Amino acid sequence: MKTRVDIAVKNKTEKNYNCAQAVAAAYADLMGVDEQTALNMTAAFGVGMGNMEGTCGALTGAGVVIGMITKDKGEARKRMKVVMDKFQKRNHVTQCKYLKGLYTGVVLRECKDCVADACTFLESALADKI
């Protein structure tokens, strides 16, 4: 499969999707849904899930994609852990508020780059499925 990282980044930067939507929409067809359904499924996960600045929305979007593709709770959890671990290793944190530097004033990673990271790690975690 050709990577969809650029599509997801374009979704974030040009279509004004939240980070979860940007990721999910890029893989909608692989999840067996149309783009609007993917957007609806992930609408509440912007700004760190429900505007609470928690887990990065790009990671949440990746989790939705993994669940929809694997259709198995145990398998999805294992694959999502791999994505989370890689994201954590690259960015040192997984929470939106720290990535955006809300309390420190130091942005660790821009949203578009978080989207790219999440998709890169997602595609790696699902390499045998997509």
Overview of this structure, please?
Helix 1 packs across helix 2. The chain contains eight helices and no strands. The N and C termini lie close together (6 Å). 44% of the residues are buried. 62% of the residues lie in helices and 0% in strands. The protein is mainly alpha-helical and 130 residues long. The protein has helices at 5-14, 19-26, 28-31, 35-41, 57-70, 73-91, 96-99, 111-125. The longest helix is centred in the middle third of the chain and has 19 residues, at 73-91. The protein is globular and about 40 Å long.
Salient structural properties:
about 130 residues; mainly alpha
Mean pLDDT across all residues, rounded?
95
Order of helices and strands: HHHHHHHH
Q: Please work out how many helical segments DSSP would assign.
A: 8
Low-confidence stretches: none
Shape, per Cα inertia axes = globular
Give the helix proportion (percent range): 55-70%
The share of residues in extended strands comes to under 5%
Major sheet description = none
**Structural class of the secondary structure composition?**
mainly alpha
Summary of the model, kept short:
By secondary structure, the chain is mostly helical. It is built from 8 helices and no strands.
Show the helix and strand layout.
Layout: H1 5-14, H2 19-26, H3 28-31, H4 35-41, H5 57-70, H6 73-91, H7 96-99, H8 111-125
Helix pairs in contact: 1-2, 1-8, 2-4, 2-5, 2-8, 5-6, 5-8, 6-8
